[in-house]
Amino acid sequence: MSEIRYDLLHDEYILIAPERLHRPIPEASATLPEPRICPFCPGHEELTPQEIFAIRQDGRWQTRVIPNLYKAVQIETPYDSSCDGINERWGGYGAHEILVDTPLHDATLASMSTQEIFWWLKTIQERVEDLAKDPKLVGIDIFKNYGLKAGATQPHPHTQIIALPILSKHQKRAFDHAWRYYQEHGRSLHQDIATFESQRERALYETTHFFTFAPYASSFPFETILLAKEHATIAGMKETLLQELATHIHKLFVALQAELGQFDYNLLFYLPPLNQNFENAHFFGQKERIFRFFVRVTPRIYTLAGFELLTHSAINPVQPELAAKLLRRYYEAGS
Ligand SMILES: [Zn+2]
Questions:
Q1: Which residues place a Cβ less than 5 A from the ion ligand 1?
Q2: Global pTM?
Q3: Contact 2, 19 (CB under 8 A)
Q4: Distance, CA 38 to ligand 1 centroid (Å)?
Q5: By CB atoms within 10 Å of each CB, which of 132, 227, 265, 295 scores lowest?
């Protein structure tokens, strides 16, 4: 049975999840080995747990959401917390789902059409809206691990969705930071970044509602952010805007793949808490003012080591201005 433990030494929450031990861990090699039978390919649906959600076109699924077989947390776990002396823990209550991005085993976000990326985004939106109905769920973590260096264990394109009864301390610090910025300036931190960066050499692509750029202090080589200019969350966003975001994602991955070839990466959704709790009550009602959601893409060209673990600061050998200059060539060629 999994649980969430509070790390008193480092002021952070840790998931202790014995079920994760049984997932297939690839042997050390440069690329992810191909499974003999892919459980995420069409025709093998019986190998996965009961479907939670799917988008179907002409009787065939385009995206599919299933519970993670090797889940870190589960809805069936009792929602409880207890103390053991100075240590605190919570039952591993929460949702851990797998979104199969596409029926195509070898697809990438560069090879997928904007319509296919739209279906993927629409599925994410549906899951965020549905999970928010459980008032006990607070933190929502949506991410893709693509390739061995990014921590993937399945080659078929997929996304993980984890909803927890707490916010990670790291996320809480980020929201508190945005909240303080708003109190000092009366404006959203993210909106200010979009306005300023859109005029700088790190800008890649801008449309009415989204802005893609290489962040000023990128932690990873060729790191990029796709920032919503007006919306705090993907929940409730109109389909035309999801189409607009799909275009940003497609153009970015075409550019990254043209520059880097096949590359491993993590893709992370930064979304506000689903529900109010003791940690976020001070800013939850203000989230539309203080926060704009964004998608962060971090190519994993180098592996992290002791310095990053120790300091939570990165050593990035590629200047963000150079990364933006190289990537912008493909936007200009494609437009
Ligand atoms: Zn497959």
A1: 38, 40-41, 105, 156
A2: 0.93
A3: yes
A4: 4
A5: 132
